[in-house]
Known about the structure:
0% strand; mainly alpha
Amino acid sequence: MRHLLPVVLLAISNVFMTFAWYGHLRFKHQPLVLVIAVSWGIALLEYCFQVPANRIGHGAYSAAELKTIQEVLTLLVFAVFSVTWLGESLRWNHLVGFGLLVAAAGFVFGFRPPPA
């Protein structure tokens, strides 16, 4: 549970933050000040998941590992979001770039020291 809960919380936090940063792109007719206020409110909810995820996860994971998990989850959430919410398509170069970032994450976790 100590390893799974932070990942679940980071995944939830990424859904909120993706909507905070990019959800407004479907509502370009809305005033910018309104969009900023709504995005800020969504980001506040995101922090309710992200901060506990890092607090709980630190120890089971290093800070660098937590950040790596967060980045990989961000890519996964954003890929689904951009296709389903924004109606954009993922091109081959996006997938290759995302794949290279996932490979980089493999280096972070692949050379992890054994537990004490």
